[in-house]
Write a structure and sequence with these properties.
Layout: E1 10-12, H1 19-32, H2 46-58, E2 62-69, E3 72-81, E4 90-97, H3 106-119, E5 125-131, H4 135-143, E6 147-158, E7 161-171
Parallel strand pairs: 4-5
Antiparallel strand pairs: 1-2, 2-3, 3-4, 5-7, 6-7
Helix pairs in contact: 1-2
The protein binds coenzyme A.
């Protein structure tokens, strides 16, 4: 994994025992920006989060990678492919990094790992949706070879205000 500026960070799939740590992470990133589909009021019970992680680990169409800084999750990427035959080569992902870790190439490293995984797991197209005003994320995706493929209106509705989205994709 090149370009990793912060070598304290360990990249690995989460285990069910990481559930408390991941819930803490999701609450933090949800409250730090309005760029995600959730805010800081994550109310998933601990047992449910354990089950979700277990489910991810048993689903060959899922790729999840967490950047750990000791006992703290610093960043996370979740890719979900389709089980339907004709679109089994396609999947979408979401990514986030705690604000205090922005700019340390964690986002880039997570995406590089996903692209590598995709190349070895029959995924030949990766899609994503991003807020049209999320310049930081769009810049990162563009650097990683994603291109703009379309626009979608009303991607988000926050405090009664609609925000449009951009569809980006990368062929593998
Ligand atoms: C988008 C996000 C995942 C990026 O993570 P990150 O770890 O900071 O990303 P990296 O450090 O790997 O790379 C950021 C790149 O964006 C560029 N960048 C930084 N600030 C920028 C800005 N204001 N505008 C444009 N580009 C910017 C940098 O040049 C950097 O590229 P470089 O490493 O080649 O210099 C992170 O900011 C985040 O979690 N944001 C909130 C949640 C979110 O928006 N998720 C995506 C939803 S679609």
């Amino acid at each position: 994994m090149k370009n990793m500026k912060n070598n304290r960070i360990e990249y690995r799939a989460p285990s069910p025992d990481d559930a408390p740590l991941l819930l803490d992470y999701l609450k933090a990133v949800g409250s730090e920006s309005d760029n995600l589909t959730f805010d800081g009021t994550v109310s998933v019970p601990l047992e449910k989060e354990r089950e979700i992680i277990e489910h991810w680990n048993n689903d060959p169409k899922v790729f999840v990678l967490v950047a750990f800084d000791g006992q703290k999750a610093a960043g996370m990427l979740h890719f979900q492919g389709s089980g339907k035959e004709r679109i089994s080569h396609v999947g979408e992902f979401g990514i986030s990094v705690r604000r205090e870790y922005w700019g340390q190439s964690i986002g880039r490293t997570l995406i590089e790992a996903m692209i590598h995984w995709a190349g070895h797991n029959g995924v030949t197209k990766i899609n994503l949706l991003v807020r049209e005003d999320n310049d930081r994320a769009i810049a990162l995706y563009s650097k990683m070879g994603f291109v703009m493929e379309g626009c979608t209106s009303r991607m988000f509705c926050i405090d009664g205000k609609y925000i449009d989205g951009i569809m980006m994709g990368r062929e593998i």
